[in-house]
Records
---
Amino acid sequence: MGVVKDALIGEKDDHVKVACVWTLGQLGRHTPDHSKALTEGGCLAPMVVLLSHPESSDDLRLKCKRALKAILIKCTNAQALAPLLRDPNPKVNKYALAQFAAVLPNDAAARKAFMASGLLQRVQEIKANAPPKVAESIARINSCFPEEAVRFSDPAYAREILAKMDDGAAHQ
């Protein structure tokens, strides 16, 4: 795996990068253990970069998208998924959110870590501009938490409280 990752990062030829991405996708799609090994080995970050890099070919972007999706579908390790949710790429967020929506309902420790690490707040930030499929995943994630926790994590709620504080100061 390390050699393929190194080639993905260091190789200049697009067709070699395509082959590396395809190989990693094939490895990661088999079991949660394979997926976890790839995520912990740092193999997803280069694919995320190549997915949105302006010099990536259409074929490379397509292979990155497919490989990421295949790997993430098998990923049941919430800690390994966390960095992907912080990524600004909406395609990456879409896959990470879908997998969190599948993992969080059955893992109390993951829910606690998700909230403690600020990811519940990140989900609420994404929610503001989410397309329907992503909004579906967000609704499933939010349903794993008490309503107060979701509301408290929503940046719109913070703005609402600040506005009330401003109104209260204006009346004094």
Note: The chain has a mean pLDDT of 90.
---
Amino acid sequence: MKQYHVMVEQDDGWFVGRVLERDGVTTQGRTLDELVFMVRDAIGLMWDETDVHLELLVPSEAKTSFETRRRARDSQRRRSRKPAKAA
């Protein structure tokens, strides 16, 4: 299994990942899961490597922004599940 390091940045609500060991592999995703899928797909298509381990290098400001958005989304889901009060 080959290991790659992916530098993750945020840009306009997208996570952008750049594989440090492979020039030319830069992709994006709306979520970190989608980004990982896209990076694996790019590596598979460009170098026919499917058995890879990815280590995400996420700067602290990106982590904070990600956590803030996740908490807001979870809070919104909880509010939408509450039954409406009877009039």
Note: Helices lie at 32-47, 60-81.
---
Amino acid sequence: MEIFFTLLGKLIPLYVVIFLGYIAGRFLNVRKESIASLLIYIIAPIIVFHGVATTKLTPGVLSLPLLFFTIACILSLLFLWIGKSFWKDTTKNILAFTAGTGNTGYFGIPVALILFDESAVGFIVIAILGLMLYENSVGFFITARGHHTVKEALIKVVRLPTLYAFFLGVLVQLAAIPFGQALSDVMVSFRGAYSMLGMMMIGLGLASINRFSIDYLFLGLSFLAKFILWPLIMLLVIVFDNLWLRLYTPAIHKVLVLLSIVPLAANTVAFATELKAEPEKAALAVGLSTLFALFYIPLIAVLFL
């Protein structure tokens, strides 16, 4: 129990950042639309580029983005199919988006630094590349389809810089182009900005809610995907790897567990805002899942990490 309360205490500052985002949105007129565009089109591509360009790309490490991208796409399409049975508006699209991802960057990186040493962050950055690619391709396309034709949605995907940042990072890595210390320091600082602004996005989203109304079905299905299916799938992956593949180290196994139990993605609010796909409903679900994770993550950490 001592470990539980220690971790609980270390997570609370992240929730202070969410509260500050709420204050900024409610009383300082900070617009979440501007922060969403900043995260999607500038900061995220820089994080992706630096992560790929500076991490040694072994077969095991390279498989992490593919693993997360595959799981994300499967769950997204599954919940899009489920959502079509209950909603005719864009709710089904944002449900599908959020089922396929989680708050791995904004929330996962700070928690990893609490639980593990600095070396684990490299694995996390590489792993979340798969989720970033999902968010900026399949996830973005499915969400955009709520208000756009197939052609319009594809055009929006092609315009996203994150995909190009990924491939540019691979080229830099393969060409062994070195980073100067000054440039590396600047890019690492973007990682901090990514976490802080991402957590503030949750508060900004909550501040924009004018009418407090909970869609319990949407909330229940979102929690089912994030807090039950994701961890179960990841535990199966770890068992399969231990018995047959032997592809990942125990340190990577712990990273897999952590990334499967983070709350709903704050990017759900960013993308829902950008694409006008039920942003208030998304913000409330993300906020409640983040509150739930305050106790859920320490509990799972005690049991498995």
Note: The radius of gyration is 18 Å.
